[in-house]
Amino acid sequence: MSALTLAVALSLLSAVCYAAAAVAQQRIATHEAHASWPLALALTGLGAGLHVVALPYGPLTLVQPLGALSLVLAVPMGAAAYARHVTPGEWRGAALTMLGLTGLVLTTSSTAHTLSLRSTLVLAVVTAAAIVVLTAIPAGSRTTVTAGLRYGAASGIAFGVGSAMTQTALNQLTNTGMQGLLTADVLLPAALVVPLSLGGVLLSQAAYRGGLGAPLATATLVNPATAAAIGLLLAGDQFRGGTTGALLALAAAAVAARGVVLLVLPSQPGAAQPAPLPQPVPAPDGTDLHDRDVNALLGSLRVPAHAHS
Q1: Residue 163: closest CA among 173, 175, 171
Q2: Which of 287, 308, 289 is nearest to 297 (CA)?
Q3: Runs of H (alpha helix) within the chain
């Protein structure tokens, strides 16, 4: 098996794990499968591990877009979990979101991020502020579509920044060797990886309370967009093709945004549908059985006339 084939196989397995984890997290969020929490964590960890293992065998411009297949896979998997059909709008939304995400990845640099200590501190503060703003949702509105999108965006930011911190810690350690293990340049980003990763999992679970497709699409889009922004603003990356590349990236973002909108429009998977009201059954004499029962009940409650004397 060639290195490229191995990268594709590992990336596909990673996407399957991420999609299954998203479906499990949604069922947890809707209080349908509490026992799935360890399974969701295991699937998320396995998906992340397979993604990391795939990177040395293939270019990032191939591995990252294949990771977006988790969105396409999660839509039918989520529908199957609730015994419903995927709507044409959901298929179009998933396809457009993945197409736009792929365009964003292909138009930005794939250089591994290595942040300075100052940039790491600034990024940590900005990330915390952004997550606080996005999750400042009233208690009664946490299951709405808008809340799901906001939680999904916060989850994508947490995972995107967590990836940048992981790369920074590993690159710094590679450059300095084991003697740099206890330096702030390695310890600070490494220490931030755990809360960011755990926070991303919890935020994504909160996002899935109102449905799976739109929040997952948002998180899938915001994650690499966050990594690209970090590279452009803090690591000196540039768009491929200069101005043309920047315009293509904006077009890709518009396509992905349209995909998210299409995923928001269909009824959200797992949303409880109101049960139909029972229809009144006519009695043999043509009166309503329900009305007859009510009249019988009222008659039994009437006070006899002699009780007033």
Answers
A1: 171
A2: 289
A3: 3-29, 37-54, 60-67, 69-81, 88-107, 117-134, 145-176, 184-207, 213-234, 243-264, 289-301
Cα–Cα nearest to 75, from 18, 19, 155, 26: 19
Claim: this prediction has a pTM higher than 0.85: no
The 10 Å Cβ neighbour count of residue 307 is 7
Q: Specify the length of the chain in residues.
A: 309
**Sequence-distant (≥ 6) Cβ neighbours of residue 232 within 8 angstroms:** 108, 238, 239
Q: How far apart are CA 157 and CA 124, in angstroms?
A: 11
Q: Residues 16-37: pLDDT tens digits?
A: 998 888 888 777 766 655 556 7
183 phi and psi, to 5 degrees?
A: -85, 160
Place of tokens 């009233």: 138
C-alpha separations of 5 from 1, 49, 62, 269 in Å? 6, 17, 11, 34
Chain segment 231-256, per-residue pLDDT in tens? 778 876 667 777 888 888 888 888 88
Using CA atoms of 14, 20, 25, 30 in order, give the dihedral in degrees to the nearest 10: 160
Identity (one letter) of the amino acid at 180? G
Helix (H) or strand (E) segment spanning residue 275: none
Q: Which residues contact 115 (CB under 8 A, 6 or more apart)?
A: 123, 164, 165, 168, 189, 230, 234, 235
- What confidence tens digit (pLDDT) does each residue in 51-80 have? 777 766 766 556 666 777 777 788 888 888
Q: What's the half-sphere exposure (Cβ side, CA atoms, 13 Å) at 303?
A: 5
φ/ψ region of 286 (left if φ > 0, alpha if ψ in -120 to 50, else beta) reads: left
